[in-house]
Write the structure tokens for this entry.
Amino acid sequence: FKAQVVCSSREACVKYYNALTKYMKEIVGEELECKVIFSGSLNDPAYLKKHFTTKAEQETIISRFKKPIEEDKLCFIIVKDMLLTGFDAPIEQVMYLDRPLKEHNLLQAIARVNRTCTMDISRRVDKDKVK
């Protein structure tokens, strides 16, 4: 699956990123990738600046995120405000909310995961059953 984590602050985004990258293999059983998408300012501390993304980097991350997991292991995007409205990625099946949202913002955010994604599964093979 592909998932989006919506945080209350940029600091929380970095904490989620650190935790997910540290424990991903242990929890999920494989190395999956996560990326943070947020903007910042010149006055921000270095640990936040490390995660700043330019418009071009954001477009690359989004493009990778929309690909099937077999093609790209980027499975989690972590945001504060970006990609909550107008973001169309039918492959996104889960949204974790760790910030209060209400009214139209809540409706638009949760609608991100309420889309149909058509995938070609005919080429997938259960390796345990093939001998």
